[in-house]
Design brief:
This protein has 98 residues and is mostly helical. The chain has three helices and no strands.
């Protein structure tokens, strides 16, 4: 039996679940200025996935890289959710939401 597909699927589910609070906290503390960190991380993880020969680690690194890149969009969407009142606004950064 080959369990690699199931392991990759479960890992993908886990990575997506972990990135939700990361995006929320990143927007809360740093605002949308942190988008470039997600870009850099995403590129690094994707490049690493190209050079890893392991059949399990390469797709997992690719999934993490794509999740980092997707988080760029989500951090800007999170800002909109904060402006709508769906999430708390960081009181130390009230000027960023004006």
């Amino acid at each position: 039996m080959n369990f690699s597909g199931i392991v990759i699927a479960v890992t993908t589910f886990f990575v997506i679940g972990v990135f939700h609070p990361i995006v929320i906290k990143a927007e809360y503390y740093y605002g949308t200025r942190c988008w470039w960190l997600f870009l850099l991380s995403g590129i690094l993880f994707i490049v690493a996935s190209l050079f890893v020969a392991d059949e399990l680690m390469s797709p997992v690194l690719g999934v993490v890289g794509c999740s980092c890149l997707w988080s760029i969009l989500e951090v800007f969407e999170q800002r909109k959710r904060v402006l709508r009142g769906w999430f708390p606004m960081n009181p130390k950064r009230k000027d960023d939401y004006a």
